[in-house]
Write a structure and sequence with these properties.
Elements: H1 3-9, H2 35-39, H3 43-97, H4 100-109
Length: 151
């Protein structure tokens, strides 16, 4: 048998320093952990939990802002729809008021206007040439000038 196998069979541990050489080492002892290391909390789980909480908080805030914007958009869309309906009604109303047959009817009935029997055409006057000054006859003696004529 080999030396390792013989020691294992006898209950001894694996080969260590040879005790026959006369050099004796101190026996090993179990040392308790330092208390400062046990009391210090692990920093990585705390940081990870903080990052997760902050990201969840950011998502909640984002959803709140999105919901507010959707509400504002729905309000504006309903206002636009109402304004478009009002505009359509006003366009129809203006078209009815501009109807020539209605204008003639109002003129004849309410304003008592009549269609003229004849239409006199005015002569053509050019706008590029000045007209001659009008001739004005002096007022006859003993008459008073009309009010507002400056005379």
């Amino acid at each position: 048998m080999s030396t390792v196998a013989a020691r294992a069979a006898s209950g001894r541990s694996a080969p260590g320093p040879d005790r026959r050489s006369g050099d004796r080492r101190a026996a090993l002892q179990v040392v308790a952990r330092r208390t400062s290391r046990v009391a210090r909390p692990k920093l990585l789980p705390i940081v990870a939990a903080g990052i997760v909480a902050a990201s969840l908080f950011a998502v909640v805030i984002g959803h709140a802002v999105l919901a507010q914007d959707q509400l504002r958009l729905a309000t504006v869309q309903s206002a636009i729809t109402a304004a478009q309906a009002t505009h359509r009604r006003e366009v129809v109303s203006v078209a009815n008021l501009e109807n020539p047959s209605r204008i003639v009817e109002v003129a004849e009935q309410s304003l008592h206007m009549v269609t003229p029997s004849t239409v006199d055409q005015l002569p053509y006057v050019t706008l590029h040439k000045a007209l001659p000054p009008p001739s004005v006859a002096p007022a006859a003696p003993g008459t008073t000038p009309l009010a507002g004529t400056g005379g």
